[in-house]
Amino acid sequence: MELYYHHYLIILAVIFVLLERLRPWRRKQRLVRRGLGMDLFYLAFNGHFLGLMLASVTVHTARWFADVTGWVGASDLLYAGVASDWPIWVQVLVAFVGLDLVQWSVHNALHRVPWLWEFHKVHHSIVELDWIGNFRFHWMEVVVYKTAQYLPLILLGFDGNVLLAFAVFGTASGFFNHSNLDVDIGPLKYVFNNPRMHVWHHDRDEITPPGVNFAIHLSVWDWLFGTAWLPEEDRQPRRLGFEGLEEFPASLPGQVVHPVHLPRREKA
């Protein structure tokens, strides 16, 4: 692809800013809202700089991994490359469905495994949801997601353009699902994630842990595994967040440090 990922990111950001102004679902929600400055930092860091840092680390890690697997004679087993001969459209289809199920599983685990939930709280500290909230997450989530998603595809020999296409589509889908857009996709809600479903994933009052609507792109996983929830009437949550949000750090440094802070043991 001719454009780098961050170019697509800028284009998509402009598109969703305009769409939310043209067709807002929560009409009283302002463009310049609480936490916007923090979310702009998360957008720049998680959307661009973190990717560059991980790419640099990945290059060296991949070389080390290749040397080790070659030394133990496991290169042929691990670097199967079976997907390299598939047509691009087959690679795209397999990557889309397979990676989406992996992401759904990781997202589910982020809510069920206590130490992972501490990292995921950063994302659920959002109280006014819009497109840019898609990028409010702790950098550790990227490590977890990327390892689970892309390592298998690289070992199987998927084309690099397929991975880039999936990343761009994933960003567009994430912007859409988090957006303040008045869009009802009708029966397609049983297949695709959308703003009306995802807003309830962020609900604080009616939804109890570990939560509902873990879909990233395909809502079909939630409907199949019994984690989908959508009220019959067209309404929105009264509050977003999680129990204990008042004690959660509101500052950027505090949010970065919080998940790795170990509480002191109480004296017997």
Question: How do the strands and helices of this protein lay out in sequence?
Answer:
Blueprint: H1 5-22, H2 36-71, H3 75-78, H4 88-112, H5 114-120, H6 139-156, H7 160-178, H8 195-201, H9 220-225, H10 252-257
Helix pairs in contact: 1-7, 4-5, 4-6, 4-7
Description of the molecule:
The protein has helices at 5-22, 36-71, 75-78, 88-112, 114-120, 139-156, 160-178, 195-201, 220-225, 252-257. The protein is mainly alpha-helical. The longest helix has 36 residues, at 36-71. The radius of gyration is 20 Å and the shape is globular.
Name a few traits of the molecule.
about 0% strand; mainly alpha; disordered C terminus; about 270 residues
Cα-to-Cα separation, first versus last residue: 61 Å
Largest sheet: none
Q: Which class do the helix and strand fractions yield?
A: mainly alpha
What is the overall number of helices? Answer: 10
Order of helices and strands: HHHHHHHHHH
Strand content: under 5%
Uncertain runs with pLDDT below 50, 5 residues or more?
264-268
Count of extended strands: 0
Gross morphology = globular
- Overall number of structural domains: 1
Instruction: Tell me, rounded to a whole number, the average pLDDT.
Output: 85
Radius of gyration: 20 Å
Q: How helix-rich are the residues, as a percent range?
A: 40-55%
Gist?
This protein has 268 residues and is mainly α. The protein has helices at residues 5-22, 36-71, 75-78, 88-112, 114-120, 139-156, 160-178, 195-201, 220-225, 252-257.
